[in-house]
Amino acid sequence: MIRIVTRTRLVALQQDAEGARERAREIQGAADRAYAGHLRTVYDLTADAEAAERAAEAARADAEIVREILERTEAQLADARAAVTEQAARIDALSGDLDAFAGTVVLLHYGKLHSVHPDRQAAERHAASFGVGLNGWGPADDCPAAEAAWRISPLSKWAVAVDGDAA
Fold first, then answer.
1. pLDDT tens for residues 16-28?
2. Which distant-in-sequence residues (6+ apart) come within 8 Å of 147 by Cβ?
3. Are residues 108 and 98 both part of a single domain?
4. What is the Cα–Cα distance from 59 to 56, expressed in whole angstroms?
5. 141 in Cβ contact with 157 (< 8 Å)
6. For residue 118, is pLDDT > 70?
7. 110 burial via Cβ count (<10 Å: 0-12, 13-18, 19+)
8. Does the N-terminal or the C-terminal CB of the chain have fewer CB atoms within 10 Å?
9. Cα separation of 128 and 144, whole Å?
10. Same domain, 132 and 160
């Protein structure tokens, strides 16, 4: 089929074609701008995701360090608790020993330790075996301990005296 196109019709078609091309350029520009915006958004989101991943990795590393420190601290705490338990047992044992030694006395000969006794009577009986009279004991502060031939002193007092001499 043959169609005859008039000049007016041809000009109208050319104008429509030019309008369509212009519209296509506008739509292409809008699409390009939308695509560029999309690319910027993807780039920004990718950068944010990478930064978040780096921060998460740093946080995981920090958490691992804290976990190691916590494990060491827990081990030290367990050791400290064991030491406290052991010390408490030793304190209890020493307290029992102290209670047993509460009345303990020492027999001094010229200020030097001669023997240890559970009580004053036992020390006097022991001294009597050396010829010291049972009733010849005077107050401890009458003269210096080094000048007294025999003297009875509480163990606690003698134990803290300088060089083991009774005060």
1. 999 999 999 999 9
2. 110, 111
3. no
4. 5
5. no
6. yes
7. middle
8. N
9. 22
10. yes
Q: Are residues 51 and 95 in the same domain?
A: yes
**Are the CB atoms for 117 and 123 separated by under 8 Å?**
yes
Q: Does 85 share its domain with 19?
A: yes
In angstroms, how far apart are the furthest CA atoms of the chain?
162
The answer, yes or no, to whether residue 135 has pLDDT greater than 70, is no
Based on the fold, state whether residues 126 and 65 are members of the same structural domain. Answer: no
What is d(CA 109, CA 153) in angstroms, rounded to the nearest whole number?
A: 11
Selected residue with higher pLDDT from 150 and 73: 73
Domain that holds residue 135: 103-164
Strands (E), 10-156: 105-109, 112-117, 150-154
**Distance between CA atoms of residues 20 and 14, nearest Å:** 10
Q: How far is CA 124 from the centre of its chain?
A: 56
